[in-house]
């Protein structure tokens, strides 16, 4: 990607937001601006169009009726398309570097912006060649393109993903510079079953974090941060596929009955349970698993295994439906055959799960998931495996899900999922932190955060492991209408304070084991454990 001479650190990072003359922007765009204002060393300008966006093509009566039905049926307070005036930001941020002198797009605007040394111009209503502004900012014109794969730039947004029963929807953050469109960020999330409105809300709220995340990385790593983005987005005109009355009637009827079937299916409780098999798992090797008996009214998930002598200890989440929360329990498997009854080892007033158990300096530690408490907590075995004592909070004030630690290259690395908005999924944004010391509260966020952004290969699915000198990370595949559908194994190519890169090498298909879903794996030399739902 071509860049101009950097002036980011000297004068602050300057972003000009392109807005309509009404100064009204969609709620998700408004949130993008709010998040930029929350960053240090940033200044905000508003750039007002002197022309209006071309209206969409005329819609059919049936399509308009469908939109009204969805607005009534799927009413929620997280409408990403709600219009909000940016004047609110000016009134509420008197002490922040926000510039109230609006620019208007005209023949002289390029010179004005260059004089102000604008770094990025950002828009969510990209009009293609009509907005020839990419040369007016040091790092070009940045915009969001909705839709992913065959649905990229297909209008109406989110409509065809839902009508064609796609399980996911995606979007891109793109930089236009020197007439080249470079992908700066891309991500996918779950399509909300059978709701066009909520599916768009989900991807729009997720997209509100794209620009702030990339600007944060830029501020941390400097302009070389952008050199890692080289993938070009092919030119693609908008494809407006508005259905006529008869087509819309057919699509609505089919979608409605799919929704009814989905809700009826959801009345059944699919319970995760544990399975174990021979140790030394290798990606691609088939393993014969046997189930561990499941208590009535419970489900078992997220197994981690520690082997000592002839006994393997499986720590797992034991969820009790009557309590609507889980605690951590352990089961002993002796000589690969004898299975003990589960015994609780850690319980809190709130839900806990994902008992990441590991050994360090001849001590056993546990980091259970405590996202309900907005903490990442470290425990140590007082008497392994049954007694555990609290050591410290590693991170407070953040809701991090399935925290997974690994020591590599002299640093502790902490992988965990989080979400940028309360309406977005917890399964499609993986964050990475690092520290020189395990017993530390100074966990630095990685500048590439989130380091994984696709729902089919993101959320932790067990501990990292090494084989033949290569480092691997298991991840959940949640690109399905069934949560926890499968497992992906990724080889980590680069892991340091400035860069993270991984590639998928193996996909674990639950159907091969006659399972409906499986979303966690761990193993030792003696035992491999997974969780799953029987068909």
Structural commentary:
The protein contains nine helices and 33 strands. The protein is globular, with a radius of gyration of 25 Å. It is an alpha+beta fold. Helix 2 (27-37) runs parallel beside helix 8 (210-221) and helix 3 (61-73) packs parallel to helix 9 (245-266). The chain has two domains: 8-58 and 80-239, Rossmann fold, CATH 3.40.50; 269-534, Glycosyl hydrolase domain, family 43 (Tachylectin-2, Chain A), CATH 2.115.10. The protein starts with 7 loop residues before the first helix and ends with a strand. A seven-stranded mixed β-sheet has the order 5-3-1-6-7-9-10.
Strand order of the largest sheet: 5-3-1-6-7-9-10
Task: Indicate the CATH architecture of the largest domain.
Answer: 5 Propeller
Given the C-alpha coordinates, what overall shape results? globular
Terminal CA distance: 49 Å
Fraction of residues in β-strands: 35-45%
Enumerate how many helices there are, as a single number: 9
Give the full name of the CATH homologous superfamily of the largest domain.
Glycosyl hydrolase domain, family 43
Structural class: alpha+beta
Mean pLDDT: 89
- The tally of beta strands, per DSSP, is 33
Task: Report the C-alpha radius of gyration, rounded.
Answer: 25 Å
Number of domains: 2
Major β-sheet profile: 7 strands, mixed
What is the top-level CATH class of the largest domain? Answer: Mainly Beta
Q: Please name the CATH topology of the largest domain.
A: Tachylectin-2, Chain A
Percent in helix = 10-25%
The stretches of 5 or more residues where confidence is low (pLDDT under 50) are 1-10
């Amino acid at each position: 990607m071509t860049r101009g001479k950097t002036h980011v650190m000297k004068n602050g990072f300057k972003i000009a937001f392109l807005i309509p003359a009404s100064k009204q922007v969609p709620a998700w765009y408004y949130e993008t601006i709010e998040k930029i204002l929350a960053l240090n060393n940033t200044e905000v300008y508003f750039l007002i169009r002197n022309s209006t966006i071309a209206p969409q093509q005329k819609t059919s009566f049936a399509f308009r009726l469908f939109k009204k039905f969805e607005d009534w049926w799927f009413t929620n307070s997280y409408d990403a398309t709600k219009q909000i005036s940016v004047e609110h930001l000016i009134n509420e941020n008197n002490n922040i570097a926000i510039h109230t002198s609006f620019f208007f797009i005209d023949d002289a605007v390029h010179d004005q912006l260059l004089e102000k040394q604008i770094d990025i111009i950002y828009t969510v209503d990209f009009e293609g060649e009509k907005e020839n502004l990419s040369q007016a900012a040091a790092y070009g014109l940045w915009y969001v393109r909705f839709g992913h794969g065959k649905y990229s730039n297909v209008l109406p947004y989110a409509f065809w993903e839902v009508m064609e029963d796609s399980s996911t929807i995606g979007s891109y953050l793109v930089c236009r510079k020197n007439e080249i469109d470079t992908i700066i960020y891309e991500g996918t999330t779950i399509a909300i079953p059978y709701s066009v409105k909520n599916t768009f809300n989900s991807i729009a709220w997720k997209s509100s974090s794209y620009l702030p995340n990339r600007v944060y990385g830029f501020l941390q790593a400097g302009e070389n941060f952008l050199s890692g983005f080289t993938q070009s987005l092919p030119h693609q005109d908008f494809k407006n596929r508005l259905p006529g009355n008869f087509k819309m009637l057919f699509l609505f009827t089919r979608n409605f009955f799919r929704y009814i079937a989905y809700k009826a299916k959801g009345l059944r409780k699919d319970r995760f349970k544990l399975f174990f098999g021979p140790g030394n798992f290798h990606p691609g090797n088939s393993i014969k698993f046997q189930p561990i008996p499941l208590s009535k009214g419970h489900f078992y998930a997220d197994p981690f295994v520690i082997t000592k002598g002839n006994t393997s200890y499986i720590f797992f989440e034991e969820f009790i439906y009557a309590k609507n929360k889980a605690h951590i329990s352990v089961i002993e498997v002796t000589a690969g055959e004898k299975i003990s009854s589960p015994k609780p080892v850690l319980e809190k007033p709130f839900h806990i799960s994902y008992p990441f158990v590991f050994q360090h300096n001849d001590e056993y530690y546990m980091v259970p998931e405590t996202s309900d408490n907005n903490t990442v907590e470290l425990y140590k075995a007082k008497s392994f495996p049954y007694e555990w004592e609290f050591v410290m909070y590693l991170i407070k004030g953040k809701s991090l899900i399935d925290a997974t630690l690994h020591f590599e290259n002299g640093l502790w690395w902490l992988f965990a999922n989080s979400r940028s908005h309360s309406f977005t999924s917890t399964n499609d944004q993986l964050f990475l932190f690092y520290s020189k010391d395990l017993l530390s509260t100074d966990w630095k966020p990685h500048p590439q955060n989130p380091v994984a952004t696709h729902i089919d290969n993101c959320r932790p699915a067990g501990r990292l492991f090494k084989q033949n000198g290569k480092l691997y990370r298991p991840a959940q595949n949640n690109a399905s209408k069934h949560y926890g559908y499968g497992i992906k194994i990724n080889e980590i190519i680069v892991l340091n304070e400035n860069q993270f890169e991984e590639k998928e090498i193996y996909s674990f298909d639950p159907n091969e084991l006659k399972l409906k879903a499986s979303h966690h794996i761990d193993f030792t030399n003696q035992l491999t454990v997974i969780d799953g739902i029987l068909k």
